[in-house]
Structure formats: structure tokens, C-alpha cells
Amino acid sequence: MRISEQEAAAMLTAGDTISLGRKADAVRRERFGNRATFIVDRNINYTNICVNECRFCAFFRRQDHPDAYLLSMEEILAKVQETVEAGGTQLMIQGGLHPELGLAYYENMLSEIKKRYDIVIHSFTATEIQYFAHKEGISIVDCLKRLQAAGLDSLPGGGAEILVDEIRKRVSPKKIMTEDWLQVMETAHSIGMESTATMVIGLGETMAQRVEHMERIRRLQDKTGGFRAFITWSYQPGNTELGGEKTSGWDYMRTLAVSRLYMDNIAHIQGSWVTQGERIGQLTLGFGADDLGSIMLEENVVRAAGTAYDMSISKMVGLIRGAGRLPAQRDTEYNIIKCFEE
After folding, report:
1. 165: CATH
2. Among 60, 68, 90, 180, whose Cα sits 20 to 30 Å from the Cα of 300?
3. Is the pTM of this model over 0.85?
4. What is the C-alpha separation between 121 and 312, in angstroms, rounded?
């Protein structure tokens, strides 16, 4: 029997965290046994110049700021080369909404990478896609098809934050609203481009609003089947205009467990060591997560908010083993490419 929105909200509000974790872990174990996965990739933030100026973001800079930058193609290709040499199989290319870059810039970036490297490009948030399309004066589907032809393989779930316009208007009033994000994802799925979905908690949302976010994604997944994974992050308040406090580890773990129980049509639930640290990341494997995401050869957005943890393949393998799981490296589509048996 599928969990209702009311039941999920009650779990988040008054549910026992340990009990929820056990239930979520039982669901995970039934689907994935004792295996836990990770991927080796790199985040390439090609620019920090952004017209959105979100209040919760510490990464963006206005174009005239002394710290504003735009990477050259040579710098981007050098980062890709380093990624391939380190055994990386995926690129996450994301940046601010730069006012002077047209769609041809991104098409050229993608094609130059694909010409030289056999690597999956899992890049550009829904926010970026809508901005590219609007700036070019074309539809979302035509924008996605052009990027797909140039080498874009799939979309990350960034930019979702909380899919409730009341929250979005308060924390990122210039950013795309809920229906826009969902439309980009549905359009991508319609042309065979799969994606992930994310949620950022700790933005002042209610538990009912968290569930509303999950419900919007669950409903779209029922329709398209295009989401590969669901990933919950926690808001990092350091150096941001919005400020505030980090949500607790317990709140994060309870939300993660409920996401496993509620998102019954999305196979993979990812735990976040990037925002929670490696020890909480390890614990997520007992609260419904079957994947710990990336070792992230480079990450700049969370780091800009004052949160930084280092990870390596050996450390990741050790974390997974320490949680009593069998570690395996995966690709973007969650195919196992290397097992790390004892």
C-alpha cells in the first residue's frame, strides 16, 4: 500500500527516527541486498557569475565582482583530462546564469569534450536549461535536443530546492518556479534524457511542504519513469544572505528514511556525505540509502558556504565496508563497473 502525503507528513513530524530507519533499510535491502554504490566524477563550475542571486547561495558573484570568473575552454578540458586520468566516468558541469553566454557556447563546450573523451556528461540544472532556452528564444524541447546532439547525456536534479512556490519566492525569487522545474524534467524525459531529482531541506519549509515536494516528483515519475535517483541535501547557511542554522543530523536521517519509503517508484536513494560529513554519510546506508554519490574530485558550491569534506576511493570503500555493505563503483546509469570485495 502506497504511503499517503498525510502519513508521510506525520512520519516527518512525529515518527521515531530509528524505527523509520529500520523500515527504510528493509525496503532498500529487498531491492539491493548488501551492495552500496558510488561514482567517480567531477563537478566543473564553469562560471560563478549569475543573474539569479539566490539568497541561499554563497557561490554566485555579480559580473563586476573581483572574484567573478569564467573558465576558458582550455581550463575546462584540463579538468576533464584530470578526471579521466583519475578514473572518473562522469562530468557534472554546472554554473551560474551568465548574461553574455549563448547556447552555442554550451554546444561547443559539450562537443569539444566529447571529441576528446569517452565520458558521460550529466550536466546543467533545469534552471540553466530554461535560461539557455529563453536567452536563445527557443522552446525547452528544442534547447534540450540541441544540447543532446552536442553531447549532453542526462540532467542532474539541482535547482529543485523545495518545489513549493511559497518557499521559492522567499529564498530565490528570481529562480524558476515549481512548474518550470517540473516541465524541464518532463521534457527531458520525453526525449529519452533521464535525470535525477533533489531536495534541499532546512530552508524554513514545513514538513508538509517537504512531502509536497516529494509528491510532485513521485507524480511525475509515475508519468515518465525518467528519474534515476532521489537525493536529499541539507541547506548550508555559511556566507549566505539567507543565513540561519543547519538542520540537525537527526532531521536529515529521518527525512532520508521517509524519502525511501515514500518514493516507491524511484530505485535509488542517495545519502549525502557532501553536506553531512562522512560519518553521517555512512549512517545513511542504514536509513534507506543504497548509494553514497560521488567522491567528487572537485566541488565548489557547498564549499563556498563553508562546508568542505575530502573524499577518495579508498576512503569511500572504507566507509561502505564500515557500514557492513559491499562497496561497488557504478556509472551514471547505476551499472556496476567495479566491485571492491574483501
Report:
1. 3.20.20.70
2. 180
3. yes
4. 21
